[in-house]
TrEMBL record:
Transmembrane segments: none annotated. Signal peptide: none annotated. Pfam families: DUF4442. It comes from Nocardia alba. InterPro entries: DUF4442, HotDog_dom_sf. This is Acyl-coenzyme A thioesterase PaaI-like protein.
């Protein structure tokens, strides 16, 4: 893990430079790209973070393939998880400073077709969960549901992932 991230007490403290009234989504993308070293190691790339979705791509590289020469399920899951977490960051950009933690608790995966080539995972957060987190008082622990749809270079849906996160809010002073 990057040294500057090891000392952070909360997830929200990583985003101190973000203006909650006018979030810079490109800056969010740069910050989040450093949060998951394994994603960098695996070659995932966060290509978009916005208020409504996030996109993470898996490269078309031999080291990502399984023995059938399709994209390994683990790589697909990694991209989906990162896309879901990034969608959370984008959707909650105005409240990031109040977030203590975001942890994946459960996931359900459905691989629809063999994943071949560059894979794009599009993550979204349940809008009602976004509203709940935005309105919640500090010190709460909340469930947040996300989903990621994965597409190949031809735009074919190759996988669906449901992600159940738990988010904790910092206690109010």
């Amino acid at each position: 893990m990057a040294p500057e991230l090891k000392t952070s007490a909360t997830l929200g403290s990583v985003f101190e430079s973000i203006d909650p009234d006018n979030p810079d989504f490109l800056q969010l993308q740069r910050i989040v790209s450093k949060l998951v070293p394994f994603g960098t190691h695996a070659g995932t790339e966060i290509t978009e973070i916005g208020p409504h979705r996030a996109i993470v791509e898996i490269p078309d590289e031999p080291y990502i393939l399984n023995h059938l020469r399709t994209v390994h399920a683990g790589a697909q899951f990694l991209a989906a998880d990162i896309a879901g977490a990034c969608a959370f960051v984008g959707a909650l950009a105005s409240r990031l400073s109040a977030i203590d933690t975001l942890v994946l608790r459960d996931a359900r995966l459905s691989f629809r077709k063999p994943a071949i080539g560059r894979i794009r995972a599009i993550g979204v957060i349940d809008p009602s969960d976004v509203a709940t987190v935005l309105a919640a008082e500090g010190g709460r622990r909340l469930d947040v549901d996300a989903r990621a749809l994965m597409y190949d270079t031809a735009g074919v849906l190759v996988g669906k992932v449901s992600l159940d996160y738990v988010c904790t809010l910092a206690a109010e002073a």
